[in-house]
Amino acid sequence: MLILFETPAGYAIFKLLDENKLTQIENLYHDFETPEAACKVVKLMHFEKFVDTAEALAATTAAVEGKLYKSLKKVIKRHCTKLQEQLAVADVKLSNAIKDKLSLSCVSNTAIQELMRCMKSQMDSLLVGLPKKERTAMALGLAHSLSRYKLKFSPDKIDIMQLKKKKRKKDKDQETEEAEVTNEETVTLGNSTEEN
């Protein structure tokens, strides 16, 4: 199985060396506790660096929208389609876009999500040849660019976020009201015992 790993600096294609690791995701983090252990689970096959921040921004925007960006399409065609292996992808929408456009078998589930989290914890050792300083600079540049441009967000997600915010506020108000009632009862009981 191959793994598509997106970074602010570019796309990485990894090879999962032991697919049985995905059957025991509860203990997967043990295999990523050290850089040496992580290198026994995944191996970097190819890293395609973004040319500049503009390309990184366009690729990130496409990924957020669940679309297949042209440079990603080229990377997958060049390094994945000839091997005809399954491709692990973090985002379900992107996974579906790859399936549709390139007829490549893709996997995107909770086991893949856990694998991606574990890989992020050892990214410095897994991305050989790309200095941490350069990755950090690319991440910062991309973050600044993203903050300047408006990305499309799902209205459903925003509605859910607003509903959750209102519920938290309502719960907090209710807790405050209950605390005030309890304090008033305590004060009232305290005053009545002093009068007796």
From TrEMBL:
Kindly state one GO CC term assigned in the UniProt record.
Answer: small-subunit processome
Gene Ontology MF annotations: snoRNA binding
Q: Where is the composition biased (Acidic residues)?
A: 174-183
The Nucleolar protein 58/56 N-terminal domain covers 2-66
Which residue ranges are recorded for the region named Disordered? 164-196
> Which superkingdom, per the lineage?
Eukaryota
Instruction: Give the protein name, as stated in the record.
Output: Nucleolar protein 58/56 N-terminal domain-containing protein
Source species: Frieseomelitta varia
